[in-house]
Amino acid sequence: MPLLFNQSPLMAAWLVAALLLLTWATAMLAGGLPRGSWRSAAQALLLSLPIMLVLFVMMPRLPEPLWSMPRQQPAASSGLGEDMEPGSISKLILNREPAFSAVFDGPPPRQDQLYWRVMLLDAFDGRRWRRAAEERVSPLAVTGGRELAYSLTLRADQGRLPALEMPRGAAPGSHLASGGLLRQDRSQEDLARYPLVSMVDARVTEPLSAGRRGFYLQLPPGNARSRSLAWQLRQRGGGETGFVREALQYLRLGGFRYTLQPPLLGEQPVDAFLFGARQGFCEHYASAFAFLARAAGMPARVVIGYQGGEYNPLGRFWLVRSSDAHAWVEVWLADQRQWLRVDPTSVVSPNRLEQGAEQSLPALRGADFAGAALPPQWLRRWRQQWQAADFAWQQWVVGYDAARQRGLFRRLGLGDDVDGGSVVRGLIIGMALALLPLAWWWRRRPRQPPLAEGWMRLRQRVAQRGVAVSPALGPIELLKAAQGLPREDFARLQRLVKEYVELRYRQQQADAGRERRWLRQARRWK
């Protein structure tokens, strides 16, 4: 029952410990001694482990995860909302909860190339960016670039799936939405694995109608100084790519600072940021740059998602946390008919892309910053080991679904599908192997000496014939008590008891062969 709410390795370890305690208590109630009962309980669990593994692997998996419960309210595990305003992303930097993990089939891109797109925000009211309605689309035309195959393991955030640009297609159970975003076919909060393929550094051509172009140029009134600056930069650059270059140069040389605690902005937030505060987090720079681009006559939109991640060399996977949340801009180049990714934060704080937000913000390395200090350096290795163990657990235990089972059955040669025949074949082979440790233990288990075992069996057989037999009864007393048995049975019993007395009390040295023969005769007496 606890696994319905928590499927972490710690919960599994707690359940194993609880099961061991229950088994030990059962052995104690059966009359065992404390130390021996511990050994018996641990031995019983170890011998049952192979059988449990065979049943776990071979029994057909349900299409939906078995260990799941519907949530009361669908909540975003990452914290990314439906809109963006100053401070909406910077507060996520304090949340180090994992958002998803990624495994690349080949060499991954550099950390500064890992832009995980989640949301497009294209409507601006002067302070807040929000998204317009999304719709299902077909894959966009892609030319050039290199193919990058990878898989994500995550609990989708309200049906939203992160992906590198540009996805060549949708993973099973998902579809492409407008802007090259990935969405689930139906929203669910269960842990799932999504194999994806993206075209990195590719040219994506996308038609932009006059109506959509006008929408991406809309700006509310206000921020007059920023509008004037935008046209100055456009004239200085002489074109679209020139404007992008000049705007980035303005941010690079304008005394701007990347900080987690910027001052509050007034009624004209873009003017206050560009000409007053000059301090902000990624959402400040993305919002200001998108405003400048639209004011300069270039369609623009804000993209929010994640940038980078933490690579674990032990597990060979990337762990992306909520603290890796990021915002950047895409501007439309009319002559090339494509969206160009622009990250204004990269020119103000290059370390943000190369080392992550934690290393680029001095405040996060201070021990007194809202309790958000980074762990000591000596704990890094231990943390990576724990992350690798947790990743393996999530991949191969919690994430062992119907698709993974089909793949395993194919690799084991049991068949291309999980049907009755393949399951029966797997159970027969698996159980035969799982019972080998039990058979080995049975042959090597501690046994009573032949004389003790045979004498115990004789007393049990006599008691079954209706004779009152007590544990303290000796050989002579046993024969006296059994005199009422039929003559032939009593004669055989008398010979067995006589030989038992000779072997037990009269012979000088033990004769193992003779004792085993006597034991076989005692077993046959009925």
From TrEMBL:
Q: Does the keyword ATP-binding apply?
A: no
Give UniProt keywords alphabetically.
Membrane, Transmembrane, Transmembrane helix
Transglutaminase-like domain spans which residues? 274-346
Among Gene3D superfamilies, the record links this protein to: 3.10.620.30
InterPro entries listed in its UniProt record: Bact_TGase-like, Papain-like_cys_pep_sf, TgpA_N, Transglutaminase-like
Output the Pfam families linked to this UniProt entry.
Answer: TgpA_N, Transglut_core
UniProt name for this protein: DUF3488 and transglutaminase-like domain-containing protein
| Protein species of origin | Chromobacterium amazonense
